[in-house]
Structures are given as structure tokens and as C-alpha cells.
Design brief:
mainly alpha, elongated
Length: 90
């Protein structure tokens, strides 16, 4: 799989759309508790994180990495709330 182009960074909404497309059928608290990044986004985050460790990110790549960080935070909140709902119902 080729890395995503960083010349046209995804927006946070695009990243979330791809994450949700992985499990939109039967969107339940259980499904939401397990939602994660699409495989191509996981690959791109790994590439950007490795480049960040080497301090070789361009400004554009830094912006893309920040978008992934924002989405990761939002997904974390969503997963946490879903797990809390599951714990309360079970």
C-alpha cells in the first residue's frame, strides 16, 4: 500500500469518515467502542510519527500529523463514552 500523499492533506472530517466507514453497519455502543483508524490512515500515522522522531517533517506533514492527533483524541472520547454506556447497560 502506498502512503497517502501529504500534498493534499485530509481534513479531520475525511479521516473520521474513513474510520466510521470501517464499521457503519449496526452502529451500536459496542461498535463505537471498537472504532479505529482505517488501515491507510494507520500506515500514514506511523510514517509521520517516525519522521517526527527524526525531526524531518515538513510544515505540511506537521499539519497532517496534527489532524490525526485531533481525530485520535475525538475517537478516544467516543470509544470511552461507548464503553461507559456498555458498562452501565451490562
Amino acid at each position: 500500500m502506498q502512503p497517502m500523499s501529504t500534498t493534499t492533506p485530509s481534513s479531520e472530517a475525511d479521516i473520521l469518515r474513513r474510520a466510521f466507514s470501517q464499521s457503519m453497519v449496526g452502529l451500536s455502543a459496542e461498535t463505537l467502542s471498537q472504532i479505529s483508524f482505517a488501515p491507510e490512515d494507520q500506515d500514514e500515522m506511523a510514517r509521520l510519527t517516525a519522521a517526527a522522531r527524526q525531526r524531518s517533517l515538513t510544515e505540511e506533514e506537521q499539519a497532517v500529523l496534527h489532524q490525526y492527533e485531533v481525530v485520535n483524541d475525538l475517537l478516544g472520547i467516543l470509544r470511552s463514552k461507548a464503553r461507559m454506556a456498555l458498562n452501565q447497560s451490562g
